[in-house]
Amino acid sequence: MKDFHEGKKKIDSRLIMVVNDEPDMAPSIKTLLESAGYTVDKFTDPFKALSDFKAGHYDLIILDVRMQNMNGFELYYAIKKIDYTCRVCFITAFEVYYRSLKEFFPDLDASCFIQKPVTKERLLQVVNRELEQS
Fold it and tell me: Model-level pTM?
């Protein structure tokens, strides 16, 4: 039988980067994830997120697709140049079809999309699934 504290410790060791330039969205996502036991670094500036990014440091990165000055796909490619193995999810207000995206972005290996409005249940479902696969 699995010890409850053993599972909690595993979640606590997971570090997630959240990048979203909406003033209310990044703190909300951080709070939701921390309430589930994750450790979260949040950024509202994609350039600051990129400058602070270190290969192998994060278990999961959550990027908003639409941001000022650098969109989520541009940040994704910049991060992948530093750490090709990192896991990335996108947050978008639009319904996204992975196959359509692959036509426009053939090198895109992320299949994780969270549609706005972001609910706690959906966010945790996706994050847990992605981290179980890592």
Answer: 0.82
